[in-house]
Structure formats: structure tokens, C-alpha cells
Design brief:
Shape: globular
Low-confidence stretches: 96-100
Strand content: under 5%
Number of strands: 0
Oligomer: single chain
Structural class: mainly alpha
Helix content: over 70%
Length: 184
Amino acid sequence: MVEEHLGELVSLIFMAFALGMDAFSVSLGMGMQRIRLKRIAYIGIVIGIFHIIMPFIGIVLGKAISGQIGDVTVFIGSLLLFAIGAQMFFSAFNHEAKKFIQPTGIGLILFAFSVSLDSFSVGLSLGMSGVKTFIALLLFGGASMVLTWIGMIAGKKVHGILGVYSEMLGGSILCAFGLLLLFH
């Protein structure tokens, strides 16, 4: 019985890390913008909260909704990531243009939503398996928050090295990640 619970916990830790790696990859690109450390901390917390809310909704709806919804959420999330990345890439060419999506306000909500959509799909499947919901949600939120911080700080360091080109690189990373999700 202890081995069974330990096995479930290890599986949840690996799943949380895998979901958090999405946030890390995307945050690496977003961190290449000029973002203060206080804002990075806030963004990580928001993404962590979304990685708790989205799988919770998925778990609650897991028994009532078919697997088709998971494909739709991945499609929407990938399009949002691509749009954010394209806007970031092209805004690097026009320095006077106001950025369309900033990691504040509705831009932060869109960013966190798009990064956490895959956790909704995971929540759907977990809802059907009867996993320990509270532990899973804490692990998902904590892992994504910490990996977001690591990604954004690493992106901030790269920005210092690459200068203006880092925004194009960051936008390219977001676009590539969106396309990867779309065609994966």
C-alpha cells in the first residue's frame, strides 16, 4: 500500500515537472523582455495559480466531458502562444510601436491561460483516474511557478547579452513552441 502511494506521488512529481517545462520554455522567451524581478515573481505566481485552476476544472469535468475537448484546448493554446510570439517578434522591428501583449493585466492572463491549457487536458484524464486531487494540484502549481521563475530569469540574463535581438529570439521561441504544440 505504501509502495502504491509512493508510486503515485512519483508519477505526479514527474507530471508536474513535465507541465512546468512548458511554462519554463515559454517563460524563457518572455523573460527576454525588460521585466523587473518583482514582476517576474508575480508572473510566476499567476502562472502557478493557473496551473492549479486549470487542472482542477479538468478534474471536475473529467468524467462528464469526452477526450475531444482536450484537443481543442491544445489548439487554442498553441494559437495564443504563436500570436504572442509573432507580436513580440515583429514589435522588435518597430521600437515606437506599443506592445500588443505585455505580461501585465489581460496580457498576463492570456499568457498564463495559454501556458496552462495543457494542464486542463491532464486534469481531464486525472479526473477519470481518481488521483489525489489536492496533492496533484499543489505539485502542478508549485512546479510551474518555480520553473517559470527559472525560465524568466534565464531569459533576462540572455537579454543582457543579446540586447535588442533577444526580443526577436524570445518571440521566435514562443512561435516555435506554439507550432510545436499545434503539430505535436
